[in-house]
Amino acid sequence: MNPFEMVVAIVAITAIASVIRAKYGVLRRDKGEAFAHRGPDPEAERLRAEVKALKERVAVLERLATDSSTALEREFDKLKDRD
Q1: Is pTM beyond 0.85 here?
Q2: Where on the tree of life does the source sit, at the highest rank (predicted)?
C-alpha cells in the first residue's frame, strides 16, 4: 500500500467514524465522549399541544359554520321576524 492510499484510507475511516458518532448522538467533550440524550423536546411538545388545540377549535368553528340548527341562526331568524 503506497502512502497516498494510506492517507485516503485514514480519511475515509475518520469520515465514517464521525458519521456513526453523529448518528448515535455521541458528543465530543474535553475529557472523553458522552452520549447526547435524545428525549422529547419540550418546545416541540408544547407546539404539538398548541396545534392540537387549534385543530379542535377549527373543528368546532367549522361545525358551527355549517350546522343549520345553531342558536345563532335562530337568533337571526328572531331578528328578521321582529321587522
Answers
A1: no
A2: Bacteria
